[in-house]
Amino acid sequence: MVLALLAALLSPPTVDRAWDAAWALGAAGGWAGLHALQPDLVDTPCPCTRDDVNALDRVAVGLDFPQAEGLADALVVTTMALAPLAPALLADGPDDALDDALLVAQSMAAAGLLTEAAKIAVGRPYPYMHGPAPYPEQNGDGVNYASFWSGHTAVPMAGVVAATTACRLRHPGRAACWLPALVGGALALTAGGLQIAAENHFPTDVATGAAVGVGVGWLLPTAHTW
Q1: How many domains would you assign to the chain?
Q2: How does residue 64 score in pLDDT terms, banded at 50, 70 and 90?
Q3: CB 214 within 8 A of CB 182
Q4: Exposed, middle or buried: residue 171 (CB in 10 Å: 0-12, 13-18, 19+)?
Q5: Which helix (H) or strand (E) holds 104?
Q6: C-alpha count within 13 angstroms, C-beta hemisphere, residue 108
Q7: How many whole angstroms separate alpha carbon 216 and alpha carbon 135?
């Protein structure tokens, strides 16, 4: 049984394009729906102060680097756009490239859905709310309570790790398979760092988002070998 499981984990992923496309679209729709509902579903406990934040994350309170948020958004859009294209460079043919691109899209949608669910469940105020909030009316607006965890990190990280995982499952010895995770992962972490600099995330938000992205990006392509 152990040998059979190991053999499955080393097998190329098998994709049902109709089912997996529907799955990805459903996850993306759920992500969008939760994002729209989040301000109404989350608790709003502020006013908050810097003393309410743990010592590790307190460094993010008071940061406000110009252009950091715009640069973070640009990196995320770029990484998410390029991640599904990576299989075209790594796969042996168009069929494998299409299947792996679908796994990448599915992973990013799943990471987005999990992120929005976590934001609603945790309701963590953004760092700028601990200044206290720049405008008193922000205390009662749920849109300001979505810090944990960083979707700017989790979603692109899931995409680039999925691209690497799918490639390695098909070509275990191909060194180029690591390029999406190494390059894209660096971009995703940079985007998270810029969000910290913009006072939009705490360090633990970014670290958790990265871990979630890696987990989802590995799990979904690997599950297609079972």
Answers
A1: 1
A2: confident
A3: no
A4: middle
A5: helix 94-122
A6: 25
A7: 37
Distance CA 133, CA 130 (A): 6
What's residue 211's pLDDT? 98
Instruction: Name the burial class of residue 69, with classes exposed (0-12), middle (13-18) and buried (19+) by CB atoms within 10 angstroms of its CB.
Output: middle
**Which tokens go with 219?**
């799990």
Cα-based distances in Å from 38 to 8, 31, 83: 39, 10, 27
Structure confidence at residue 10 (pLDDT): 64
What is d(CA 183, CA 199) in angstroms, rounded to the nearest whole number?
Answer: 25
* Average pLDDT value for residue range 163-187: 96
Residue 109 one-letter amino acid = A
What is the C-alpha to C-alpha distance for residues 16 and 11, in angstroms, rounded to an integer?
16
Q: Hey, how many other C-beta atoms are within 10 angstroms of the C-beta on 181?
A: 24
**Contact criterion met (CB below 8 Å) for 216 and 114:** yes
- 170 has a pLDDT exceeding 90: yes
What pTM, to 2 d.p., does this model score?
0.94
Domain hosting 200: range is: 2-223
147 to 18, 57, 89, 156: CA distances (angstroms) = 34, 12, 35, 17
For 77-98, b/e burial (b = at least 16 CB within 10 A) is: eebbebbbebbeebbeeeebbb
Residue located via tokens 């995982």 = 165
Residue 135 φ/ψ region, left for φ over 0, alpha for ψ in the -120 to 50 degree band, beta for the rest:
beta
